[in-house]
Amino acid sequence: MSALTFDKNELGNLEYSLQREMLSTDRRGGYMSTTIVCCNTRRYHGLMVAPIGEDDRTCVLLSSLDETIVRQEQSFNLAIHRFRGVYEPRGHKYITDFAYTPTPTITYRVGGVILRKELLWIHKRTQLMIRYTLLDTPSEIRLRLRPFFAYRDKEALTHANMEANGRSYPVSGGVKNRLYEGYPWLYLQTDRPDAEFVAAPDWWYGFEYPQELERGYDGYEDLLTTGYFELALAKGQSVIFSASAERMESAEQIGTLFEHALMRRTHKIDFRSMLRHSARQFVIRRPDGRTEVMAGYPWLTAQIAREAFMALPGITLEQEHKEDCLDVLDSVCRTLRDGDFGGSASAAQEADAPLWFFYTLQELESEIGGREIWRRYGEAMKSVLAAYRRGIGGRVALHDNGLIWASDDRVALTWMNSYADGRPVTPRNGYQVEVNALWYNAVRYTLALAGEAGDEAFVAAWREMPQRTADAFLGKFWLPEEGYLADFVNDAETNRFIRPNMVVACGLDYTMLDEERTIAVLQVVRQNLLTPKGLRSLSPQNPLYNGTYAGDDRTRSYAAMNGTVWVWPLPFYVKARYTLTGAGFTPEVERLLAGFEEDIQRHGIGSISKMYDADPPFAPKSAISYAWSVGAVLELYRLMERFDPARAEGRSAPTDARTAGTAKSRTAAATAAATKPAKRTKAPAGAKSVRRTERKTVKK
Question: Is 257 in a helix, a strand, or coil?
Answer without folding.
Answer: helix
